[in-house]
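Q: Predict the assembly, please.
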Amino acid sequence: MPIYLIGLSHRSAPIETREQLSFSNKELKAALCTLIQRPEVDEAALLHTCNRTELYLASLHRLTENQLASLLCLMRPEAMSKVRDHLYYGKDTEAVAHLFEVAAGIDSMVIGEYQVLGQVKEAYDTAGICNTIGSIFHALFRQAIVTGKRARTETEIGKGGFSVGHAAVELASSIFGSLAGKTVLILGAGKMSEITTRHLVSEGAPFVVVANRTYERAQELAGKLGGQAIQYQDFHHAVETADIIISSTAAPHPILRRDDLALIMRKRRGRSLFLIDIAMPRDIERSVETLDNVFLYDMDDLQDVVAESAQQRQAEVEKVKQIIREETAKFTEWFRIREAAPLLSRLKKRVNEIQEAELNRLREQLGEIGESQWRAIEAATRSMVRQVVRHPIVRIKQELAQSNGKCPEYSLLDAAEEIFGLEEPAVEGDHIVSDETTEESR
Amino acid sequence: MSASGALFLIAFVAYVISAGLYGASFAMKTDSAMVYARPAVWIGFLFHTLSIGATCLITHHGPFISTFSTFSATAWFLVLLYIPSEARVRPPALGVVTLPVVCLILVIGVARANKEIGDSKLLQSHIINLHVLLMVLSFGLFLLAAACAALYLAQNRSLKRHKSNGWFRRLPPLDTLDRLAYHTTAYGVSLFTLGLVLGVERAMSGGLAPGWQTDPRVLASYILWLIYVFYLIARAIGGWRGSRLNYLLLIGPLVAITIYFLPATAHHFG
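A: Predicted assembly structure:
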């Protein structure tokens, strides 16, 4: 059964395009439930972060790029035209390796960041809750999590790294110099906001104010950071006194507009304001940048800031890639053996049928014989049959294990199928065909 | 070549080397060249001080006896301001802007070395000497403020553009530059105001030819004063901040240079 990947990320699409495929948790579950009801989908998982939306599918059907795109945009059909040119595709080993790269953090905007591993786990859990995954994706996501952990424990990819928090501190220092006496306002008590604020606080920002739709959550985060919680509807007043604002609410529309901020900036008497918008979709109107002394950075902008440090981590990335190769090979081996299981099962069944048929024929020819003699004959034929198929099965498994994910043109599996006459109607499709190719074939 | 000339040459070469090293350090995003840039500035400043001292000793006059010595004193004062200021901002950016300006002032001074100040009798007056000193000091401060403003605008642009390739790391923080420019301008305006008052007082007491009130240089000096006073009021009372005010600080030295080259009807200077 082929594994398919389709998605878009910070590498392929700007934030405006990625926003087209942003989902709330509720929408994500609804999308999975809808997907699994489609006849061409056997297993499905959606990985959705602020930097990427990726759909992983296992399907017995041959799926074209168009079909995959339609499945991804099932909940957002209107987004299709906008995202189409930014989508990337993968199948089997390619799709598996990509998921492992994501889990290991080397496909992240901030190389080696740990949060993405949690997001992979979350995608796995959500798919589990929605009952859209089977044995293949259970194994795939577990292996992805193992890969992510190995990458961070066996290499330095996640250590002393340059995160969004570091980038925020660097940028804030470039605006304010010292962060002493500065106030950080958090809009939306997300994990990312918390991490970023911790960096700023550790660099000297002493005042933290948290506004969240759920006041209790704001209090909880404010307690953790030694700050103060305010009612969400009062946040405009807090903007007047804040120096740094980190916004990551789940609001579907901008919560901070240019006109509002222009008025606030007058009250602030032109004091610099550093805005970090890590929400998806974004919380702050892009046009606020045109205001003097307002500096707005979203997730894409931070990519430039972390780019330099990413170069320094190239050596670690190579080590992680080696781990990914190993883990991909392990999964592919398991997957191939699993794929061979029906054929091996048919082989065993076939020889058992032959044995059974021959024993029946022998029973008629021999007439009445003793029970112990009959048992001896049965045991001898069973042993003979086992010995005949044992070596081919062992060799087939060996070949699959050694194939390293590569599929030879004519494998032992094919040979066994032909020699033992085990052919079944072949499963359609062996690779993703682009729609152009389909047109040509027609 | 005289002793003071030799000392000046060494100072000038040291300044040129330090300007080059600051520029290389900034462009290559490495601090390795900075190791030599700072000592080069110090060496230049030391020899420059000795050169001015030697000139004063030889001529038994203050440092404003000629056009060259006035320019030299202006450059010396700018370096004097630069050295402590560098520690307050992230090096080497301020050096990249200031040291080439120092070199340029010295080159212009050398180019106009044969031009003597019109009325040497005027320089016997302590008030005139003090007036020139205050003007030179305030011009040095305005130049430093302009350097900070230029860096502010560069940093502002870098942070606004987002795709800065890390240049923002090489530039000083905006607030630091803003504060330094403000304080420098505040001192500069104080000295400039005092210098103007002394100049007017001297002119009113017959130090300048009749009709000095309408001399283009005198009038333009008032405009310069108004520009800087407007900056201070807008910044301190109006609460203005940001790029527009910093453009004003860049305009200031341009006006000052224009004044220098304006035709004079009554007011002559070196």
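DSSP finds 17 helices and ten strands in chain A. Residues 148 and 166 of chain A are 22 Å apart (CA to CA).
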